[in-house]
Amino acid sequence: MSGVQEDDDLVFRKICSLIEPLNEKGVKLTRQTDLIADLEVDSVAVLDMVMDIEDFYDISIPVNTISETKTIGDLVDAIHEIKKEQS
Amino acid sequence: MGLFEKFEATATLYATLMSQSSQDPFGVSMDEMKGPTRAMVKGREIVLAGTNNYLGLTYDETAVEAAKTAVEESGTGTTGSRFANGTYNAHRELEQELAEFLGYAHCMVFSTGYQANLGAISALAQPPNDVILIDADCHACIYDGCQLSGAETIRFRHNDPDSLDKRLSRLGPDVKGKLVCFEGMYSMFGDVAPVKELIDVAHRHGAYALLDEAHSFGVFGENGRGVAEREDVLGKVDFYTGTFSKSLASIGGFVASNHKELEYLRFSSRPYMFTASPSPANVAAASAALSRLKADGAIREQLWENAKRVHGAFHQLGFELCAPVSPVIAVKLANKEQAFKAWNFVMENGVYVNLAIPPGTPNATSILRLSVSAAHTSDDLDIVINAYTALSEALGAGAL
């Protein structure tokens, strides 16, 4: 995808750093990585990880939004959207 | 094919754990009940320490008699919903008794505690302008209530008023109604919420506070009115929810409030309107148990004495406990596999407790959850403590 902004990359990296402790199988993390299917992380652990993201960016990510995200890329996009709305 | 693939991962995990297990922790059947704290399971008498029978009133004479009379006089079932033909005088009377006991002006009785939360939350908050804020460790029925409502739902960190404050501060100007949900005592770990602080934060932001006292009603407070009574905030709670299936030894649930608008839920709460009302026997038993709870504070004293004894003994044995003393005593284990083996070990030593493993446990911990009853005799507790002493030795010897 052209024009990946630096900020976009930072959100992606932040998420990766928070997911890494849950990545027991050492799966390579990309925007296409499915949080639950590929990483075998349970849904509650995803919700808890999202709370760290919320506190880091000082945003609130509704449970409704999280249940619509499947991949790391979905989550990155959702965070950008929310950052724009809540700033 | 397509429907079932999603179950495979969990089914495989379950099968793997079961292959190392002589019994199924999630499929125990009480072949014959022997009273509030004993049952026959596969030919052996087991001490029940994984129920929520906090006051031990399931065989209370007055409750049993009241239930029998109700069946004889009003029949076995109501065959209708609260909204249609299923509201009897007894439902209304129980609503009044609960409202009076707790000091609220209004009360609605639901068919289960699960439905009380489901029905209150789903009706109170509506998309797109209402927001629900829930403690991260809230029970499934609160999560399900949020989902059924469809309103935006935001989790705050468990028992953390600052985390709630931050999330309420971030809400935009277009948000209308704000509903904050949390529990008195949490069912898995037995830890208690800072209800006063949470209510203060909620009200400072113009939000309503819904407090679920399912596990703490009858257990906490000088008169058994829950954590809200102990913390002297009963009058500040906007919606007080509870269940009949724990301290009241029956089945059913309720929501109490000083907001007269609670009555609107009678024609807008789907889990109230579209399910059969609690049966006459359930209502009569709950009402009788409530009378016992009000009249006999010694039952609650016995419960706490029993809780202190077990908690103290487990502490002495060196177990990692999840909370200070309360009737729910959770022992933390290293992982799922060890917890599974520990559950079997305790069962083989004549004690039934609850196994709780992720997902669905706080911080992905694996625990043995034990709940104490006022009806546990000294002999019952000896058996429980002996079983855990043996467990502690087996864990220490690396046998599990």
Word description of this protein:
The complex is a heterodimer of chains A (87) and B (400). Chain A is built from four helices and no strands. By secondary structure, chain A is mostly helical. With 400 residues, chain B is of the alpha/beta class. Classes of the chains: A mainly alpha (87), B alpha/beta (400). At the A-B interface, helix 2 of A face strand 6 and helix 6 of B.
Features:
heterodimer, A: 87 residues, mainly alpha, B: 400 residues, seven-stranded mixed beta sheet, four-stranded mixed beta sheet, 13 helices, 16% strand
State the distance separating the first and last CA atoms of chain B: 38 Å
Radius of gyration of chain B, in angstroms, nearest whole number: 21 Å
Globally, the shape of chain A reads: globular
Number of strands of chain A: 0
Tell me which protein chains meet in the greatest interface and how many residues each side has.
A-B, 19 and 21 residues
- The percentage of residues in β strands of chain A lies in under 5%
Shape type of chain B? globular
Count of helical stretches of chain A:
4
What structural category characterises the helix and strand content of chain A?
mainly alpha
